[in-house]
Amino acid sequence: GTARGRRCKRELSGTQGGAGRPRPRQGAMMSIERATALHDLFNMVALPLLCVLNAVNWASDIALWAALEPTRYSSWRNMWIGGHQSLFLAATGVYICLDIAFLAAVPKCVKSSTTVLAHHTVVLVCLLVPYLRPTTHGYALGLCMTIEANTTLLIARRLLMSIEFPGKALVRAVVSTLFYATWIGIRLVLYPWLAVVVFPRDYLDAAARDGSYVNVVLAMPTLCVLLTGLNGWWSVGLWRSFAKRMLGPAEMGHFKQHFL
Length: 260
Fold this sequence. Notes:
This protein is mainly alpha-helical. Helix content is 77%, strand content 2%. It contains 12 helices and 2 strands; from the N terminus they run H-E-E-H-H-H-H-H-H-H-H-H-H-H. The protein has a two-stranded antiparallel sheet with strand order 1-2. Helix 2 packs antiparallel against helix 9 (147-160) and helix 9 packs antiparallel against helix 10 (168-210). The termini are far apart. The relative contact order is 0.08.
């Protein structure tokens, strides 16, 4: 009985808080760290390439951009040259599928894999619109994928925290400024504008042409509203993180108590 008691004591000593949960093995923790680094590396290669593919499909004439009417989807459509649209669409689909596979295999490489997987699923459905109507709705693909410029800056910001090099402070300041500017400009301005103004008008005109309100273009305003809501949710988290960093834990608690 005494030997058995000692053995049970040793087994319990290998648990956290006596709750019977084994401590995470060091190898497992390292594998998650490596997976996170690999995921960031994958995105830092893939996303800039997608941004370049997006950019080369838009008109480069400054005069055309000066004449842009942002409330009219036809004006955006005229700005979309689409010379490499098929390649861009295929590359986007491949990237999303690879990222879904990565997140499904190693969900802990991001903070909320379920949310990101839901986001990617919505994006895949959105890709059906330019796929089924390539001659008229490539511009929608281009506008929505501008968000990947902000995602690239987000990952670059995170990577800069873990490396040291001369001039890091300046580089980090530039990246952070561009990150916040594109977050506001794309996630909080462009996406709501597309969801409320541009895409609904495109959908209604498509419904009139097709003679039916049930058509693939309906996915554009519907799913853009969902993505806009998700951007808003992430913005709340970003604000809390920023405020906590600027105010400190004590001041943040005081702020929450009196203003939230």
